[in-house]
Amino acid sequence: MIVAKAAATFFLAITTFISSPDNATFARLPESEKQSMLDAVNRLRAKGCHCGRKYMPPVGPIRWNAKLEKAALVHAKDMESNGFFGHTGSDGSSIGKRADRAGYKWRAVGENIAEGYGGFQNTLLAWKDSPGHCRNLMNPGYDEMGVAMVGDLWVQDFGASAGKYENAGR
């Protein structure tokens, strides 16, 4: 896990491995907002970019996954409710455990978190400017994502499913 303080009130964190009750309820983002986020990430992936000093070539698009969205929202709510900012949940869970609890069958998962950037476009730019977050965005091994925001906390979860039909119901 890499944690970087970008400015006095702006924080970013990243991990490449997920907290809350299994039956947690959550509100989904509007479809138009999800599509806008997905389009922005896929534009970046299609162009390629520098993640720090390393050039990351263009990679294929990712698609939205409702189970990763749920895992992201559960973690964002946990951070907001319990007053912390980090990849380890208040119950000690990692991204992998939270993905499991959301019903996501995975072979790889990753997570970006941010606080203090306002809307998604500013948050995405901050992640792009942070080498570790950028590598998650550009990772060709990820083909799905889900994003959630609670207050000014953003959680972006990435995944590669364990099997072609494992995560149906996106």
Q: Main β-sheet, in a few words? A: 6 strands, mixed
| Shape summary | globular
Tally of contiguous helical segments: 5
Rg of Cα set: 14 Å
What share of the residues does DSSP label as strand, in percent?
A: 25-35%
Classify the oligomer: single chain
Question: How would you describe what is shown here?
Answer:
34% of the residues lie in helices and 27% in strands. It has 170 residues and is α+β, with helices and mostly antiparallel strands. Strands 1-2-6-8-7-5 form a six-stranded mixed β-sheet, with helices on both faces. The protein has a two-stranded antiparallel ribbon with strand order 3-4. It is globular, with a radius of gyration of 14 Å. Residues 1-26 have low confidence and may be disordered.
Topology:
Blueprint: E1 2-7, E2 10-15, H1 31-47, E3 49-51, E4 54-56, E5 63-64, H2 66-82, H3 95-101, E6 106-115, H4 120-128, H5 131-137, E7 144-150, E8 153-161
Parallel strand pairs: 5-7
Antiparallel strand pairs: 1-2, 2-6, 3-4, 6-8, 7-8
Could you provide a short overview of the structure?
The protein is of the alpha+beta class and 170 residues long. Helices cover 34% and strands 27% of the residues.
Any descriptors?
8 strands; alpha+beta; two-stranded antiparallel sheet; globular; 27% strand; 170 residues; disordered N terminus; 6-stranded mixed beta sheet
